[in-house]
Records
---
Amino acid sequence: MVSLTPRLREQRGRARRPFLAGVISRKGGGGKSVTSLCLADGCSDAGLHTMLVDADPQATLTAILLEGKANRVTLGAYLRDLSIDPVSVATPRSLLMSFVPGDHSTEQAVAELGIQACEDRLGAVLVARSATPDVAIIDTPGYLGAITDLTIAMADMLIIPTRVGGQGDMSALGTTLERIARGPHRSPAVVILPTNYAPREASQAAGLALVSAHYGAYLGTPIPHSAWIERAANVGQSVMRYAPKSNAASAYRTLIEQVVKLQGGGQ
Ligand SMILES: Nc1ncnc2c1ncn2[C@@H]1O[C@H](COP(=O)(O)OP(=O)(O)O)[C@@H](O)[C@H]1O
Ligand SMILES: [Mg+2]
């Protein structure tokens, strides 16, 4: 069991900075991109100015949200050249939501510039808009590298979507938590989010029990396996908008409520 210091309330005291929720995991396929999109839609539906940042070189969210749209300015270009007008990067999805697309250049930019310089630069991306968002959500790659470390360093909240019951899930979760504990970080709130969860499968029920026994304090409400998630993604949507009454949307709503509360300064 790794020990993580509790989040300190006053750490958001830095003015003019959005509440930053990083969605991280050592393992791909655990539901990071799905979770990021649900959070972004959920937060903007809750009336918060929301920025969604695709920091994954695989650019899943960019493919879902900007399919076929050319001439995007991506996060990598932004990190390299602060003179680019941030407004040109955003593609509104709703009036309250903006999106910073990603591609392979993010990885190179972070590797070349270094994490410290990127903290300042990503900070500038997050605030250099006509209205600083209330909350920013960052989707990250399915491995632990410089982009995830940058996210850990800056986040007020870290969400770790994870499947349970598979052989590598527990070890991936362990290494992800160790990476957070290693810091540097702002003592973010940490939520382990079981995803794609099928309680009738014995291995998954056992996996959830194991996660609960080891990391119960960080455990979020499991997101059930749901066919609506895939269907929604196929039409460029999140399940929050596509099937708001589904079990998966209700489960995500619990996480969204937590983010909304934390960004407002609550515990
Ligand atoms: N609760 C769920 N029910 C059904 N399918 C899911 C669920 N969560 C994620 N998926 C599917 O699992 C796959 C991986 O999800 P994704 O968010 O892309 O993972 P990651 O970003 O961590 O690699 C996607 O095809 C997604 O649609
Ligand atoms: Mg992804």
---
Amino acid sequence: MIESKPPGGLPGIENKPSAAGTRVDASPAVEKSWNTVRNPDVPRFLALFIFVLLGAGISSLAFPASPPIGRGVLPGGLLGFLAWLFYDGWQARRLLDWLGRLQKSSAALAATPLPARLPHFWREIAERMERLLRQQQRALQKQRLLTENLVDALQASPNGVIMLDAARGIEWMNLSASRHFGLDERHDVGQAITHLIRDPVFVACLASRDFANSINSIVLTSPCSNAHRPLRLSLRLCPYGADRLLLLSQDITQIEQAEAMRRDFIANVSHELRTPLTVLAGFVETLQTLPLGEDQRQDYLARMERHALRMQTLVADLLVLSRLEDSPPPGLAPWTPAHTLLAACAAEARALSELLARETKTKTHRLHFPETHGLGEIAGNAQELQSAFINLVGNAIRHTPPGSRVDVLWQNNADGSATFAVRDDGPGIAPEHLPRITERFYRVDSGLSRESGGTGLGLSIVKHVLQRHGATLDIDSAPGQGACFSATFPAARVRAQAALPPGAGPREA
Ligand SMILES: Nc1ncnc2c1ncn2[C@@H]1O[C@H](COP(=O)(O)OP(=O)(O)OP(=O)(O)O)[C@@H](O)[C@H]1O
Ligand SMILES: [Mg+2]
């Protein structure tokens, strides 16, 4: 009736009966007999005495002529004793049969009543046994529940847990461990761990038995890792019990990626600042040490100003990014008319194009903006949205040759969403750059970008702003075929007004 281990239980955890409690679950009948039957031997010996007496009596009545000792009473008493033995043995047999029925299942304890009309002695034994069994069953249930909760908790853990026996074979593993190492519980339990995890550092650590130093020291790439889903694991070995080991694994892919990003970020910022600072220091030294003519001095000062401005822009962009990361996403208000955002964008784009044309002594870009007031409204932070739109239009101006055509489009889609798009007919972007182009400091041509005063943070800011507004950024480009950056805002953030009137397409600015 007692199962040795609950299903799904942990190896090595036995269902020990609880030592606590003496009267936890006795039924009232059992409780009564427990208290009232003080000495079950008295009726038993009384029965024996009666049997012997009856045997002797019957014998003396059957053979009245025989002398009382030796011929009649003695064999009669002996027969009475044997009859009592037979009767007592039969009661013991009934008790054994009852016990056998109880042993068949744990439910039988409740369903199998005590044998009827058992003599006091055997009844007392039966009741005591039943009471003990009930206590043990209750303790087992408690233990089983605890074990099940423990297993559930371990299964819910995001960290992998593998229990290893003294021979370093797998005794048990949780789901995270199966996922981390690509193991299958059905086939791999019982296998030696070193057959499944062959990393040399791990194998050496296991062999050295120096588990105290394994804390955070074993970092390996999971066998399930691939280019699309990299998986880096930190392993820890903890000894427990009789020469057993707990192998804990933690997914540190994101931690490592964040650390790598942090390192890259610091390296990039330092690199971006180093160039203008070196140039500035060089010019300052030149101005201090060399007797320069006025024209040369002015030229140097103008260059110094350019580099100082570049550093200022870099710091400003970094602050914008950090503010975007730290502040909560904008709510569904206020509503800003799309044409207001586009008008501000058009004014800045024209100013930038003219500035570039003046600086490079070339022609301006051909800019086209939709000039209509019925485009609808958009909910969110107008300042952020404007800065994202200007970044995209600015890119189309700064990364295309002078005189290129730049179209800015606004489209209210059938599903209620709206798309802002900037299309140019410039050199376009090679496909290998597209997945990384919104990363901080990523440039297709870093030399050209720096020359044009770019920090490489513009698209990163755009991505953040769009993410905060629930919008998506699509980039469609190929070398020699221009580029189209489009931001699609969800219907919840768009209050569509009248459909685009005919003839409201792009017009030359
Ligand atoms: N319309 C475009 N056509 C071609 N290349 C582009 C276009 N837009 C962006 N790029 C490329 O993507 C890179 C990243 O753009 P991003 O806006 O992030 O940085 P940036 O323009 O160089 O500097 P800034 O931080 O001042 O915007 C640019 O350096 C450029 O090489
Ligand atoms: Mg840019």
